[in-house]
Amino acid sequence: MGMASAGCIGKEATFIERLDIHPRIIESAKRNGYTSAWSIINSSPEDIEQRSGLTAAETTHLISCVVNATIKKPCTAWQMFQCPDVVPGPYPCISFGCQSLNKILQGGLPIRSVTEIYGPSGSGKTQVALQLAIQVQLPVNAGGLGKGTAYICTESQFPARRLRQMADHCRVHHPFAQCSPNSSSRSLDKWTNNIHVQHIANMEDLLNCIQKQLPMLMQHREVGLVVIDSVAAVFRVEDAQSQSRSQSLTALGYALHQLAMTKNLAVLALNQVTSARGHDVLHGSFDDFVPALGLAWSNLITTRLALSRKYPQSQQCVIPVRNLEVHFSPWLPRASANFIITEEGLKDMMNPN
Ligand code: ATP
Ligand code: MG
Q1: Less crowded by CB within 10 Å, the N or C end of the chain?
Q2: β-bridge partners, 162
């Protein structure tokens, strides 16, 4: 007999074949359909015993090996010190395409977490989200994730023209698009077709979209960023104190975290401000503003960033300076950065003062 059949070569061992137990136990289990961890954990020991003809002791041994192989064990501080590889490495993030912002966020918008940007109307929240929706499409070595965006609009129409303006700039001037041998990287379709827009008016539809529609979309399209513009708009003011509002907020926060963790993506929730002292939101100073939705929502986000707009001292320069500040985050120090918004998108300031 010569070579093994092509079907056998390179055939991956089943879960049960990889366990470090007596081959006879593995054979008996396999023969009776117990090839996955799920099939074993989901059956009673008596069932396994009866169907596979194993003894009670062998069955207990099999189950405990399966459980040990399945459960992710915590590692000790000593193990971390001995072998840094056991510590999960930093996750990739989405570059803002603006160095000063990347610096305060230590690389960009993090995946596997929920980030909020709050700020007054006109501060630039939507501009930041649009830029990230473009940036996420870049390959990992160019600061993106090579994936698309799901953009949920709750307030106003999706600013398609503005997106087109920013995407157009990216495809013409970004070094990646310039150097890419793939000509589609220079086509506008590629950059805008990867942004899936959904307009939603109420909380029920928002939850439905996050729990059902987005996972369905993700079965055939790669999504690296989910934007909600904005989260406050689906909560009516008159519901402010109601119990159902805090229940909906909790459900929303939970669903967003689930999505971020299971699909390895970044969630960006834009939020409006309310006046802390009952002043007119448009004319008060930034300290007078607090993020909308109160404490219940604050506890559901991982990172909070505050965006504000200020005019420079020099009246010769009419472009307003924007400021993004890390308000809280489990891993970032409190820091802030200035930037400007131009026709092309977010830009670093030449002279960051
Ligand atoms: P709201 O809460 O009302 O949605 P927002 O925080 O989302 O407000 P944006 O719509 O992101 O605000 O920002 C609007 C601002 O962005 C404009 O006031 C303008 O200063 C700037 N902007 C928009 N388009 C351009 C452009 N093409 N060139 C330069 N600046 C622009
Ligand atoms: Mg907006």
Answers
A1: N
A2: none
The model's pLDDT over 155-175, given as tens digits with 9 standing for 90+, comes to 989 999 999 999 998 888 787
- For position 79, what pLDDT does the model report? 66
Ligand 2 mean position to 230 CA, how many Å? 7
- Ligand 1 pocket test, candidate residues 118, 126, 305, most atoms within 8 A of CB: 126
pLDDT tens per residue, range 226-252? 999 999 998 865 566 667 788 888 899
Where exactly does CATH 3.40.50.300 map onto the chain?
A: 87-348
For residue 320, the one-letter residue type is P
| Distances 146 to 110, 116, 136, 141, 199 between C-alpha atoms, Å | 15, 22, 6, 9, 24
Ligand 1 atom nearest to 130, measured from its CA: 11
Overall fold of domain 4-70: DNA polymerase; domain 1 (1.10.150)
CATH 1.10.150 location in the chain: 4-70
pTM score, whole prediction: 0.76
Distance 331 CA to ligand 1 centre (A): 29
Number of the ligand 1 atom closest to the C-alpha atom of 126: 11
Pocket lining: 193 vs ligand 1, CB cutoff 6 Å: no
CA distances from 54 to 24, 172, 314, 325 (A): 9, 67, 84, 62
- The 10s digit of each residue's pLDDT in 259-286 is 999 999 999 999 999 876 644 445 445 5
